């Protein structure tokens, strides 16, 4: 669609291009989006009240629906795209809508391509970089996540609006790529430039945790609490990190207190809250802590939301809640039927090949730990396809090891494989307390042998 002569494209102040002067609230909205702030919804509402046809604000709403990872919300995102499409006046706006449509149709690669095309034309478009970063993360595409950021790096300077947030995204991508020292340095720079960059704060914490430096990670998060206390869903996730650090430091009761105070939020239909809660409770129970009836409420939520199947990553955590305090059988049957449908798509492929087998392995754990272990061994190298961070997926590694230890009570060879896997883990992360507490006394000469 052509651009009217009265509406020439111009910069919106954050590296994007629009034909309509952005309302005063748009800067606040972009800042809130980049910083995961709880104020984002109010800011977008203010933008829409001042300028109902401002396309980027409508697109933020569409992406917000899709980031929830629920099939039931994809239709709403598609309807929003249909409403917004006639309002587009620039290629950038058209590509934002195209990305929403592709993502809602389970075409992650198509959505990433549309977003990358925007960045080729507007490499300082902070909003698009953030959305691309989040989408690549959700689909476990570390190459796309890091490549996009390094591809636009030369266009950025510390004076560019949003530069601190971009450093934060870069730090996280580096950490997921295993470049921990560089991640720390870039993340520290992000927080210097933008103290409210919760994503950058959390990226530095990741870099410490992956190098078995829990004391330093705890000090870092405590010192920068003001930077993430104003977040929405992400606030609970950063406190999840802090609680998991307490587990590593041998302070599980402190971790449980953090669970009650900050991690267990009122349910708003976001699977990331379920991920935080289930993995922390599982770790606490594995450390011998009685968590009372805390699983019950999670299982009740999982019994409903676990039938949506919009995200393989979400399904795994719903299954864990149902295993601990419910009946996972209905969810397993629903997921099997979902995967049997004659449908294609990025998430559907991940569910068939990774998600459904993982849910089955999780469900088998208590009754058939040896079978659960074998299934988890086969899945080990493929879990990255579900998305989530290395730290988030680590619980499935621990569940695998625990299944081997439990199954080894009846199968000595399974137990030997478990011990080899524990020693290998300690070879990679010598300070990991969970593995230290479970490895059998004796020689560690088998540390390099694969389980």
What does this entry look like structurally?
The chain is mostly helical and 451 residues long. Helices cover 67% and strands 1% of the residues. The protein has 23 helices and two strands. Strands 1-2 form a two-stranded antiparallel sheet. A hairpin with a 5-residue loop joins strand 1 and strand 2. Helix 11 runs parallel beside helix 13, helix 12 (214-223) runs antiparallel to helix 13 and helix 13 packs parallel to helix 15 (271-286). The radius of gyration is 22 Å and the shape is globular.
- Termini, distance in Å? 58 Å
Spatial extent as radius of gyration: 22 Å
Give the low-confidence spans. 1-6, 443-451
Q: Which term fits the overall shape?
A: globular
Number of helices: 23
What would the average pLDDT be, to the nearest integer? 92
Strand content: under 5%
- The computed structural class is mainly alpha
Please describe the biggest sheet, giving its number of strands, its sense, and whether it closes into a barrel.
2 strands, antiparallel
Can you write the helix and strand succession as a string?
Answer: EEHHHHHHHHHHHHHHHHHHHHHHH
Strand order of the largest sheet: 1-2
């Amino acid at each position: 669609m052509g651009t009217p002569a009265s509406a020439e494209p111009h910069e919106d102040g954050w590296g994007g291009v629009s034909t309509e002067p952005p309302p005063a609230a748009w800067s606040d909205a972009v800042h809130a989006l980049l910083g995961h702030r709880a104020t984002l919804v109010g800011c977008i509402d203010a933008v829409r009240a001042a300028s109902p046809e401002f396309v980027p604000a409508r697109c933020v709403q569409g992406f917000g629906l899709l980031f929830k990872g629920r099939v039931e919300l994809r239709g709403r995102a598609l309807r929003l795209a249909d409403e917004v499409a006639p309002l587009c006046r620039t290629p950038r706006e058209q590509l934002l809508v195209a990305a929403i449509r592709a993502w809602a149709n389970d075409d992650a690669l198509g959505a990433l391509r549309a977003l990358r095309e925007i960045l080729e034309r507007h490499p300082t478009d902070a909003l698009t970089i953030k959305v691309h970063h989040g989408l690549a993360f959700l689909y476990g595409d570390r190459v796309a996540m890091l490549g996009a950021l390094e591809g636009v790096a030369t266009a950025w300077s510390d004076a560019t609006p949003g530069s601190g947030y971009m450093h934060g995204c870069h730090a996280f991508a580096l950490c997921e790529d295993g470049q921990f020292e560089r991640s720390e340095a870039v993340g520290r720079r992000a927080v210097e430039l933008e103290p409210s960059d919760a994503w950058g704060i959390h990226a530095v914490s990741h870099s410490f945790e992956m190098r078995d430096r829990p004391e330093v990670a705890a000090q870092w998060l405590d010192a920068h609490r003001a930077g993430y206390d104003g977040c929405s869903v992400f606030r609970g996730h950063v406190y999840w990190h802090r609680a998991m650090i307490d587990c590593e430091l041998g302070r599980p009761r402190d971790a449980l207190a953090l669970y009650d105070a900050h991690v267990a939020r009122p349910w708003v239909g976001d699977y990331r809250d379920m991920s935080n809660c289930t993995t922390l409770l599982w770790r606490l129970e594995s450390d011998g802590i009685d968590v009372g009836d805390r699983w019950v409420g999670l299982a009740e939520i999982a019994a409903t939301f676990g039938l949506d199947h919009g995200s393989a990553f979400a399904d795994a955590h719903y299954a864990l809640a149902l295993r601990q305090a419910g009946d996972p059988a209905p969810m397993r049957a629903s997921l099997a039927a979902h995967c049997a449908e004659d449908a294609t798509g990025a998430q559907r492929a991940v569910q068939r090949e990774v998600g459904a087998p993982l849910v089955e392995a999780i469900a088998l754990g208590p009754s058939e730990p040896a079978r659960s272990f074998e299934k988890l061994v086969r899945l080990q190298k493929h879990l990255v396809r579900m998305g989530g961070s290395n730290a988030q997926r680590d619980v499935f590694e621990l569940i695998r090891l625990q299944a081997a230890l439990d199954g080894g009570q009846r199968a000595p060879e399974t137990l030997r494989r478990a011990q080899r896997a524990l020693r290998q883990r300690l070879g990679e992360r010598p300070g990991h307390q969970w593995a230290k507490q479970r490895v059998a006394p004796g020689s560690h000469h088998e540390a390099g042998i694969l389980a």
